[in-house]
Amino acid sequence: MDFPNNTIDDIQSDNGWDKYWNLAGTGGAFSSKGTEESLFKQQWFQLFEKMLAQTSKVRILDVASGNGLLATLATSYFNKRAISPELYCLDSSSSAISSIRQRLPKIHGTVANANDMPYESNTFDLVVSQFGIEYADKSAITETARVLSSNGEAMFICHFRNGEIFLQCNQQLEIIKCFLESDFLNYCQDAFSKKVGLNQKNTPLSEFKKSDQKLRSAAKKVHQILTKYEQEPASQTLNLILADISVMYKNVNAYRKQDLFVWLQVTINEIEAYRFRMKSMINAALDGSAVGKMVGQMLDLGLEIIQVKPMRFSQEEKNIAWLLHAKTTTTN
Ligand SMILES: C[S@@+](CC[C@H](N)C(=O)[O-])C[C@H]1O[C@@H](n2cnc3c(N)ncnc32)[C@H](O)[C@@H]1O
Hints:
The chain is of the alpha/beta class. 53% of the residues lie in helices and 15% in strands.
């Protein structure tokens, strides 16, 4: 059972996000060790408040919605004000959309590419996206302008190249890379198999000892990596996995052989999905020039720019994300 190193290299053609959402449950795409979420929330609430000052009937499209983090935020904001917005979520991952359909049945979930939105022109008061639209190509901006209604607004929070989140993703990727290079999971699979064999008297003791020794030295390497980066989310996740593996290895007899290997495969898939997510976020991050092009395209499409800025907590701190806010130009 080799770790499938080559399955996630081509970020665009791979259905890695779908694999990720299939495993992610209700968690979002981005969990950080910081408090960035509060900054984003504040920004969205300002937008919703502005919207409510103009109308109480709001139709919102969340582009590349994942499993509905932003739609959930919008729902709770509007519901507290006794308003039920019409919410649409679009994502290319069917697992993400099916999670929305199960958990949030009032939201219209659509599996589609943001580059080709299956909606009528002039449909939405708001088109929003949090770490989503930058994964699609520039047609997604053209589509946004098309589906926005005549008084509509679009607001996007996008990954910032070399910003705080970008650097965090790089750090997590580095930890995962070191972990995989230790070959721990392959040694683990081998040692599990030999230990089961030993107990069933199919494997000689000497063979088991060899495997066990290899596993122990790989585990040592892994512990060194995780100690070095102990505060990082990837290390915390890997530590939990290691703890589970250790319990299972000590009590191999308590499990069915088949269950042990299925569990190991699921663990491998989860690590793969995590690595994919980090790589994908890094890939999608925008630098100033990419944002400049996006703004130019919006202007060409007749949108008016309300605000474009890097988001950060204070002048002294690193940028976290880009904020792009535009609206349909009204011709009198
Ligand atoms: C980082 S996740 C963000 C999800 C969500 N906005 C959130 O904050 O949790 C990026 C999402 O973009 C989706 N995606 C990537 N390319 C896309 C495309 N061309 N069209 C639609 N969705 C896309 C992925 O499936 C994934 O759910």
